[in-house]
Design goal:
By secondary structure, the chain is α/β, with parallel strands linked by helices. The chain starts with 8 loop residues before the first strand and ends with a helix. The chain has a seven-stranded mixed beta sheet with strand order 1-3-2-4-5-6-7, sandwiched between helices. α4 packs across α5. The chain is built from 13 helices and seven strands. It has a single domain, classed as Alpha/Beta hydrolase fold, catalytic domain (Rossmann fold), CATH 3.40.50.1820.
């Protein structure tokens, strides 16, 4: 099978094209951020897409670094590769990508899974996002990790890890013009208003999973917001986890996801 996509992607062929899971990554991230699921999953074919402007990915042709563009790339990927019975998983910014894609072509999709998604209810943590996601020195980079994980000590107590990241940290990775522009766009009222309309249009089974303490998602407000705006969403949070809840408590995470997929 020759896959059509102009950016990097992950494809795990599980010999079941009757159902397809596609993962959409978060801000300045990559398809590899969900490697733990990729390694585990065997029940249907699995894809994860790289979106331009993130993780130093060059922006090609007429594309740009916006969630609107990412949702179009996602739809084109599905249609170009003639995929069917699509289940979308969106982490953080990826939650916006899957919402806008659903709004544009709802007939393509079977279920939606939101993992700590960007949304209007998190506007009260905008200051934390602007502080933590654009580190300019190593100490600020550790602050970024504290925004991602409930317990960052597993990293900071590892001397070899600390030494490695201190030697390889480059502020340009987090502060180049494309990423700073995308970051400003993600907190804009214009984007959040578009996203709210997309969420209100969702009319298929949807699952929301949050961490207990997330630096850029207000847990309680997000739960309330999704219940108000997404029809029949199943919404919950996982104790002792943060923005990367699937890494911090994999066993409970995959149990929740599989129960939803099997329902």
């Amino acid at each position: 099978m020759s896959i059509i996509y102009k950016y990097d992607y992950v494809f795990k062929d599980n010999n079941n094209s009757e159902e397809n899971i596609i993962f959409c990554h978060g801000f300045n991230s990559s398809p590899n951020s969900f490697k733990i699921f990729e390694n585990y999953w065997t029940k249907s074919n699995y894809y994860a897409l790289q979106f331009p402007g993130n993780n130093h990915t060059e922006i090609k042709e007429a594309d740009d670094a916006t969630v609107e563009c990412y949702s179009d790339l996602l739809i084109n990927f599905i249609e170009d590769n003639k995929l069917k019975n699509i289940i979308l998983i969106g982490h953080s910014m990826g939650g916006g990508t899957i919402s806008l894609a659903y709004q544009k072509k709802p007939e393509l999709f079977k279920k939606l899974i939101y993992l700590a998604p960007t949304n209007k209810s998190s506007q009260n943590v905008t200051e934390a996002f602007l502080r933590d996601y654009f580190p300019k020195n190593f100490d600020e980079f550790i602050g970024f990790f504290k925004s991602l994980y409930y317990d960052v000590s597993k990293f900071t107590s590892n001397e070899s890890w600390m030494r490695l990241v201190k030697n390889t940290f480059d502020p340009y990775d987090f502060n180049n013009s494309t990423i700073t522009k995308l970051g400003q766009y993600l907190i804009s009222n214009e984007f959040h208003d578009k996203l709210e309309l997309a969420l209100k249009s969702v009319n298929i089974p949807a699952l929301l999973i949050l961490g207990e303490d997330d630096g850029v998602v207000d847990r309680d407000l997000c739960l309330e917001y999704f219940k108000e705006n997404v029809k029949n969403v199943k919404a919950l949070w996982m104790p002792k986890t943060g923005h990367m809840m699937f890494e911090e408590d994999w066993d409970n995470f995959i149990k929740i996801v599989e129960e939803f997929l099997n329902s």
